Structures
1.
Amino acid sequence: MRIGIGYDVHALVKGRRLFLGGIEIPSDRGLLGHSDGDCLIHAICDAILGAISEDDIGHHFPDTDQNIKGIDSTKILSYVADLARKKGYRIINIDTVVVAESPKIYPHRDKIKQRLAQILNIEKDCIGIKGKTTEGLGFTGRREGIASYAVALVEREPEKWQEITGELNLMG
């Protein structure tokens, strides 16, 4: 078993749609970014990448690459999940915290979990989504941005790992 941690933050700006956890949330502002700005998915990606000893999301999807400008973050998460599988890992669970004064996360939690479970090919109850505020403190408290934290637990799949490395199971 291996654990990874991820963090991401994006500024809230007028004129953008708000995406969190792969769903659009009604809002008068959205997250600024080279992609769609989904800081929850970005934190999850970095957590998974860390757990499988890969470089961070910026290495795989640099903000200098104009070919991916405006990319849907669910495509990034699909890529990361596929990379984990190709390296012989199975995602066990994801736990997250979204730090925002607004919007409230709880009303969207089940829909986010459903979407993430679909992308990651894991059960919905293997994903934790929590919304927290900073009680008016800092950039999130002033509603200037949203921050997200994520932890991923992965497990090496013995059969897949043997296939990748060519190792033999000498234990029977």
Note: Residues 110 and 124 are 9 Å apart (CA to CA).
2.
Amino acid sequence: MPLLELQHLRKYFATQKAVDDISFSIDAGQIFGLLGPNGAGKTTLIRMITGIFYPDEGQIIFNGKKFDPQNDIAHIGYMPEERGLYKKMKIGEQTTYLAQLKGLSKADATKKIKEWFIKFDMNTWWNKKVEDLSKGMSQKLQFVTTVLHDPKLIILDEPFSGLDPVNTNLIKDEIYALAKKGATVIFSTHRMEQVEEICDHIVLVNKGTKILDGTVNKIKQDFKENLFSIGVDQIPPSLNGTAPFEVVGNEDLAYVVRITGNNKPNDVLNYLLQRGVNIRSFNEILPSLNDIFIRLVKGTPVSRQFQNVNS
């Protein structure tokens, strides 16, 4: 059973359709990417999922029943892109206060906070004020306040902003660990390489509508264009018109080719071997999510990087 289902959601602001008939579901324990350009409707969707906005049409199913913000919000942790920490409060005091708002007793909150602070090397921060923290330190604190109450659904909007590589990996490891324990994570970012690395499944929205929905691997397979990189010891002097591929680029003793017609990769290999070409590598080129994102949002071909390469 999915933890979260959005069924034909619509949200209007005056005459603008911020969200227009969007449906998708997210399984428990899944790390889910919610993607789209600025103004696509992502924030409006998140605000409906967290009960800040009510949909004008459609419904949200949470944990098998109609979403009830009054009761279900306690099972959600939301880390917005714009941080909401109180700058003048001491960190220990603030974290305890936010944990109690989510239903933890003071004793349980204090215990969990100390565990997280030790894990994130924050145990000396207790009496610091938020305004004294760097952006990266604030980011770690915000993450802790988001997950402290063990929510079933965790929504992270640009969670790695301001973090150095060491702390980025620290947060990534915790996201994986939380998902492994059964938490569902909605991950929103503009960094497509992070989405490819972290997410199991993505939805891409643009201008208030859903334009892509699927697993990362399946989407990349669906958008592939029969492109292969072939490493050779020596570039042949010529390739005649009977080749089962077209060369779209070459550089540093490597071809980029597109297989033509009904030909298969083995046909390419046989063609080159028969002409005495020593092949060092043969790899399929799959489009990145960033290329697919640009293609769908702006209408740019995925393989644009090869269009002007001399063959």
Note: The mean pLDDT is 88.
3.
Amino acid sequence: MKYYLIVGEASGDLHASNLMRALKQEDADAEFRFFGGDLMTDVGGTRVKHYKELAYMGFVPVLLHLRTIFSNMKRCKEDVVSWRPDVLILVDYPGFNLSIAKYVKAHTHIPVYYYISPKIWAWKEYRIKNIRRDVDELFSVLPFEVDFYRRHHYPIHYVGNPCVDAVARFVSSTRQTFEEFVTQNRLSDKPVIALLAGSRKQEIKDNLPDMIRAASRMEGYQLVLAGAPGIDASYYDSYLKGTPVKVVFGQTYSLLRAAKAALVTSGTATLETALFRVPQVVCYHTPMGRIISFLRRHILKVKYVSLVNLIAGKEVVRELVADTMTVKNMERELRSLLFDEQASRMMLEEYDRIIGILGSPGASERAAHKMIALLNK
């Protein structure tokens, strides 16, 4: 069968590439065409555009690149219709993908599947109408989404979480010790505080400087930054110059396994940090912090922004967002995790409960098996 996939960022590239491999195991004749990244390209098929040409974050960058965004949408719609796949598989990235789904559903008979469903439970709940109209099958990787969509009378398939797969695969295949990690990266033998400042330039700009200021106050620790995929090393230079921070690329999981604690920008990284059982503080700066905090309390439909807390259904990790993300608050919370044994132990116990909720590895394989079974009907 012919599969057309669309992703818009690095995490989507990772999860889509694993799904593609699983589809190939189920369907030896699988053909792929996609808007994606390097990992998907490694699996095989034809890449129409790289996700880096799609990803714009924030009101102003989006406004400045509207012509490019609309051009990419037009190209994508035309390409899907022209190639006539057996199924269109959308991966997260709802602002772009829901527009594609609407067009494809209105102009073709191509089934539309959504893998890693849009997070409309956080806000924009009205999008359920679009999903009902334009998406044939929805595949969730977050267990609490099942109840949310059930309340809207829209059945979905929970297939497990691909982060569980990725971490399990890394742990089973990589035996690198702490000593080997620090030697390979020319680090000291001090315990590590990991900094995960986001995957986009705007996130890095907003979060990294204050993360560094807070973590630099921890005596006896070295600070190591996870360089984001798709971000040139030179971009970090202005932020790291004159600081003790070292940066490593392509080694986020190795860094997390070596870390004693972490400052993490909200997103998939918070869940990956939990899966490695690293105590963390979630930090997410937004412009106009007080206004955003007000809107968060009155507009967002959920209490939390981190996947860890959303899955747990309570505050397991401290979230410093908008006006609460200050150097003082980050320093206090980080110091508690490093020097208060009870606080870190309680967090690790909750991590274990969350890991149990997520279920066993095999999300990509379960999703691929279910997709092909549905298509064969």
Note: The longest helix spans residues 66-83.
